[in-house]
UniProtKB/TrEMBL annotation:
Pfam family, one: FHA
Alphabetized Gene3D superfamilies for the sequence: 2.60.200.20
Domain FHA residue range list: 22-71
The protein, known as: FHA domain-containing protein
Superkingdom of origin: Bacteria
InterPro entries: Cell_Proc_Reg/RNA_Proc, FHA_dom, SMAD_FHA_dom_sf
Length: 215
């Protein structure tokens, strides 16, 4: 049976079998009561989806992190560890299919000409300030609903050899920049070879995957 193994400040807190759904948070009505000031009242949900499980952050104040990256919703793989406040939680159970982050989030410097493409299109300085809740949401396919928070100045998305684009955070907003393999679509239209400023709710298509920009 799938389960969660919970540690608090490196001490074993408990092991919890998973059913169809299980909530975690500071309020006592959660299935797993995490009594810590860094945890929101109803912080996260682990839910079965077909033959695997997903974790979803329920709009918590301090976020939920998987492999160091803040997540909104993502499929879990056997051995995954996620953090909620000072709690470290390991999932043991059937693995979800490879996630959007596994298959389509790239390192810019691994893409030939990637850094040059960003610099050529950069019309204002990159923004080192907080990105708040800016994020990309997957709209279709087996990873539909998965969300990637845009915590870096440049987030590179795509499939090498097919199509690659980058979301660049500048002082005046977020921009979609073509990097390789043609122009990604914005709201169903090719935007040409130049960068395009993104607005809340814009729908993107990169390497055949439909995405939405949320802010």
């Amino acid at each position: 049976m799938a389960k969660l193994v919970v540690h608090y400040r490196d001490q074993l807190f408990g092991e919890f079998d998973l059913g169809q759904r299980l909530t975690l948070g500071r309020q006592e009505d959660n299935d797993i009561h995490l009594d810590d000031g860094a945890v929101s009242g109803h912080h996260a949900l682990v839910e079965q989806r077909g033959d695997h499980f997903c974790i979803e952050d329920l709009g918590s104040t301090n976020g939920t992190r998987l492999d160091g990256r803040r997540i909104r919703r993502v499929g879990l793989r056997d051995g995954d560890e996620f953090g909620i406040g000072h709690f470290r939680i390991r999932f043991e159970g059937p693995s979800a299919p490879p996630s959007f982050q596994d298959t389509m989030i790239l390192k810019l410097d691994d893409i030939a000409g990637g850094r040059e493409a960003i610099q050529k299109e950069q019309t204002s300085e990159l923004n080192g300030k907080s990105k708040a809740n800016a994020r990309i949401e997957v709209l279709d396919g087996e990873n539909a609903g998965e969300t990637l928070f845009l915590e870096e100045d440049v987030t590179t998305i795509g499939v090498p050899g097919r199509q690659v684009a980058a979301v660049s955070h500048r002082r005046d907003g977020f921009y979609l920049v073509p990097v390789d393999g043609g122009t990604p679509k914005v709201n169903g239209r090719d935007n040409g070879p130049r960068s395009c400023r993104l607005n809340n709710g814009d729908e993107l298509e990169v390497a055949g995957v439909r995405l939405a920009f949320r802010q």
